[in-house]
Each structure stands twice: as structure tokens, then as C-alpha cells.
TrEMBL record:
Annotated compartments: Membrane
Lineage of origin: Bacteria, Bacillati, Actinomycetota, Actinomycetes, Kitasatosporales
Cross-referenced PANTHER family: AMINO ACID PERMEASE (PTHR42770:SF16), AMINO ACID TRANSPORTER-RELATED (PTHR42770)
InterPro entries: AA-permease/SLC12A_dom, APC_superfamily
Protein name per UniProt: APC family permease
Bias (Acidic residues) ranges: 478-487
Domain Amino acid permease/ SLC12A residues, every copy: 19-463
Location of the region described as Disordered in the Swiss-Prot/TrEMBL record: 469-502
Length: 502
């Protein structure tokens, strides 16, 4: 009797481990030092409130999102939830959009790795390095981190995350101890400073700063007590990012003073945080911040790499992607072939931009990341819509707050957020209207291709189509938390049918 093929290492990750993956993907130090000055330029001293508002919106989304995670186990996350609520064609379209979105986020960040490393080497040692070899070396390092066991990745990310958040807290502590430029105050949260036209731009920047938080459910099969761990990690990640971002941006505003900070951000956005930490902590801390920005980017890349590998594994198990991508390493229990495929694809894109003479930050990062970010937000919107649709078709013990009120509210808020980001997309790309139109169009185009693939599968490979995001009870999945079988998504006569009689 042959042994079954190895699977992922179950019962390995706790709440803190999963939270490290999610928060690391957001790259807090890079987001603060690299992007927060733009938020201050746009929204003035009310910028910190924008991060709180974005965090509150995503916390509301998490209410329905985590409720559904207890009833729909597995590693498919977004696409599994969307399939259960909105049907297989929409679910397969979402699956393709998720893969492309995560790949876009990860691949673009290699441009940031190259540019950040080049800037750090020049600032600290006067070296002028080419960015392309740096990014390719980063690809290999990230591949190795993903190849190793998931607990190795969790420990590594834990160390890197503590270091990057620690340097930001050191900056904030220096400002608090010294009392800031003009004394400490809470004017940043006064309605008169928050309800200004520039807040629209701040919200667009703030939502982008949370990218990746939703990947908690991807690690469900490797989590200890997944029903509780995934929920706790999701709320912990949103709460930490929202409050931490708002606190750090507020501290930097205090460092320069309400009257001077906007001008300082406009004059030298890239140097705003380095100037503040040099003044309130010391030049050595600014040098350390330069180094930790590079490790922050590496941590973000490793977190995205692991998430993409598990999405690839789930889709290979569904039969949508080649079965080989679902192979798990017998020793490290990692989806190693999915990692190889992702690394090769990333190398092709990075080499393409490099050989074309593109700028690693302004083009590789911003142009590739922007459709990925908007695609992931579109998936959150579809998931929020799918939650009440799903819960109207099954017996469950969840209350209306979790299954109707919170997801509907989140859907409205996310739709507004997507509109704000799309309407101010030039803030992220710095590109021409033609390039921005192309980048925005990629999201619906990829989704439409996925729906077309679903319709083709239904005709040519009906067995694969029927298994896609199949009910875990009917398929014998031991992770199922709900004993009530789901109705087949394709047999629903309307998007949100009434519950079947119990």
C-alpha cells in the first residue's frame, strides 16, 4: 500500500504566527517612511484619522469574513467564499483575480527592494549599486524562505517585524519624551482637520497600507485550532495596523509641529521620517532605519510569497491549475513547486522591466502593484456581498450582525474606497492617463477571463468544474465546521435565495 503524498504541516501556526505573516505583508516601516508623507501632504495634520477610518472599515469587513471562515474551511479563502455565495463562474473569476492580484503585489515589490537597497547603500556607504542584480538576489532569498517550513518563515518574519516596528516606536518615544516641536496635541483628530477635501486622498493611501491583511484564512490548514486562531489573527492584524499607523503618523506630525509638517513633507517626502528620527533619537537611528527598510521589504515579499504558494496549492488541488503545483515537499511540507513557478515568473517580469530600462520604483513597483492592490480590494467587496448570500442558504448559529449588517455595511464602504482609489489612481502610479486607464482595466479584464474559463470548464471538464470549492461535508473534508451541507452554488435560482427548510 503506497503512502499518501505529503501535505501541509497542520497544527503549526498560532495566532501570533499568522498575524506576523499578515502584518509583515503590509510592511509597516516601508508604508510609514515611504508613503505616509504623501498622506500628510494630502490631508494635512488630519492624516492619522484616515488610517483609523480605513482600519474601522476593514474591521467591519472582518466580522462577516471571519464568520464565514468558520463554515467554509480550506485554503481557498476569497474564491471559496465567493463561490459559495455567488456561484462558480464568479468564484473562478475571483480565483484568477486573486492569483494575479497577489502576484502583482509581490512582483512589484521586487522593484522596491532594488530601489530601497540602492538608496541604503548610497546613503550609508556611498556605493552606487545596480538595482536589477539586487532584485534577482532577493528573488532567490525569498524563494528559499518559502521553500523552508512554514514555522521557519513565521520565526523569521517575527524577528524582522519586531525590528521594523521597534524603530518606529523608538522614533515615537523620542518625540513623546522631548514633547515635539510645539508641544503635544490631539488636533489631528479634530473634525475640522479630518473633514477636509484632502481626506479623500488620505483614505486612498490608507487603504493601500492594509494590503495583505485578509490572507489570514489562507493559513487555515496549518493553524492550531483554526476556527479561533484565524479569527483572532485577523482582528489582531487590523487592530494593530490601524492604531499603529495612526499613532506613528501622529507622532511624526508632533515632531515637526502642525504648522511646519506639511511643508516639510512636500519639500522632502522621502527624508521626512529620517529627519525626524535624526533630530529626536540620533543619526545612528536614521542609519538603522535605512537598513530596516530593506529587511521590511524582504519580510513583505516572504509573506506574499507564502500566501501565493498556498493559493496556487489550493487551485492545483481544485484542478484549475496543473496538479504539479500542488506537490508538497516531503521534509519541509511546503508547496515547493508552486514556489519555483512563482519565482521563475517573478524573475521574467523583473528582468523584462530591467532590460527595458524601467525605473524600479516608479514603474516596476507602482505600475505592477496598483492593479494588484485594486484587484484584492475588489475581492474583498465580492466577499462582503457573498457573505449574506451564503448564510441565507444554510442553517447556522451566527447572528444577523455577523451575517447581514456587518457585511452589507462593509460592502458599501469598500465600494466607496475602491472608487476613491480609482479616482485618485495617479497618486499611486504617477503615470499618464493612458497608462492609468490600462492599469485600471486589468482588474475587470482578468476577472472576465476567469469567468470565461469557468464557462469553458463547465463544458469541457465538468468534473473539475463540479469539484471547484465543493461542499466539504459532501467531499469528506475533515476540516468542516458545519454539519449542514451547502446547496450547490450553480443550482441557485437567484443570487441570494431564501434558506432551504430545515
Amino acid at each position: 500500500m503506497s503512502k499518501p503524498p505529503p501535505g501541509l504541516r497542520t497544527g503549526t501556526l498560532g495566532t501570533a504566527d499568522i498575524a506576523f505573516f499578515v502584518i509583515s505583508a503590509a510592511a509597516p516601516l516601508t508604508v510609514m517612511a515611504g508613503v505616509a508623507p504623501i498622506a500628510i501632504m494630502l490631508g494635512g495634520i488630519g492624516a492619522p484619522a484616515g488610517y483609523l477610518l480605513a482600519g474601522i472599515t476593514l474591521a467591519i469587513f472582518a466580522v462577516g469574513f471571519t464568520a464565514m471562515s468558520r463554515h467554509v474551511p480550506g485554503g481557498g479563502a476569497f474564491y471559496a467564499y465567493i463561490t459559495r455565495g455567488l456561484g462558480r463562474p464568479v468564484g473562478i473569476g475571483a480565483a484568477l483575480l486573486a492569483m494575479v492580484g497577489y502576484l502583482g503585489m509581490a512582483t512589484g515589490i521586487y522593484g522596491l527592494l532594488g530601489s530601497a537597497t540602492v538608496e541604503t547603500a548610497h546613503a550609508l556607504w556611498g556605493l552606487d549599486l545596480p538595482w536589477l542584480p539586487v532584485s534577482l538576489i532577493g528573488l532567490l532569498l525569498v524563494w528559499y524562505g518559502g521553500f523552508r517550513s512554514i514555522d521557519f518563515g513565521a520565526k523569521l518574519l517575527g524577528v524582522l517585524l519586531i525590528a521594523e516596528t521597534g524603530i518606529l516606536l523608538l522614533l515615537a518615544a523620542g518625540v513623546l519624551i522631548d514633547g515635539g516641536a510645539d508641544g503635544l496635541g490631539l488636533d489631528s483628530f479634530a473634525p475640522a482637520n479630518v473633514l477636509v477635501p484632502g481626506t479623500v486622498g488620505v483614505l486612498a493611501v490608507a487603504f493601500a497600507a492594509f494590503t495583505g491583511f485578509e490572507s489570514t484564512v489562507i493559513y487555515r490548514r496549518e493553524a492550531r485550532d483554526p476556527g479561533r486562531t484565524v479569527t483572532r489573527a485577523t482582528y489582531a492584524a487590523v487592530a494593530f495596523l490601524g492604531t499603529f499607523y495612526a499613532f506613528v503618523v501622529w507622532a511624526v506630525i508632533q515632531a515637526f509641529g502642525d504648522e511646519a509638517v506639511v511643508k516639510a513633507a512636500a519639500d522632502d517626502p522621502a527624508g521626512l521620517f529620517f529627519s525626524a528620527i535624526t533630530t529626536y533619537v540620533g543619526a545612528w537611528a536614521a542609519d538603522l532605519m535605512h537598513i530596516l527598510i530593506v529587511t521590511s521589504v524582504l519580510a513583505s515579499l516572504l509573506a506574499f510569497h507564502n500566501a501565493i504558494n498556498r493559493y496556487g496549492l489550493a487551485l492545483a488541488e481544485e484542478g484549475v491549475l496543473p496538479r504539479a503545483l500542488g506537490r508538497v515537499h516531503p521534509r519541509h511540507r511546503s508547496p515547493y513547486l508552486a514556489g519555483v513557478a512563482q519565482t521563475v515568473l517573478g524573475a521574467v517580469v523583473v528582468l523584462g522591466f530591467g532590460l527595458a530600462g524601467a525605473d524600479p520604483y516608479a514603474q516596476l513597483l507602482l505600475w505592477v502593484n496598483t492593479p494588484g492592490m485594486i484587484g484584492l480590494m475588489a475581492l474583498m467587496l465580492l466577499t462582503a456581498i457573498a457573505v449574506p448570500c451564503y448564510f441565507r442558504t444554510v442553517r447556522h448559529g451566527e447572528g444577523r450582525l455577523r451575517t447581514v449588517v456587518a457585511p452589507v455595511t462593509a460592502a458599501v464602504l469598500l465600494a466607496v474606497a475602491i472608487y476613491l482609489i480609482a479616482s485618485r489612481v495617479e497618486l499611486f502610479t504617477g503615470a499618464s492617463p493612458l497608462v492609468n486607464t490600462v492599469l485600471l482595466s486589468l482588474v475587470p479584464i482578468v476577472f472576465a477571463i476567469g469567468v470565461g474559463l469557468a464557462l469553458r470548464l463547465r463544458r469541457s471538464r465538468p468534473e473539475v468544474y463540479a469539484r471547484f470549492a465543493a461542499d466539504p461535508v459532501r467531499s469528506g473534508d475533515p476540516e468542516a465546521d458545519d454539519t449542514t451541507p451547502d446547496p450547490d452554488p450553480d443550482k441557485r435560482s437567484e443570487p441570494c435565495p431564501q434558506p432551504t427548510p430545515s
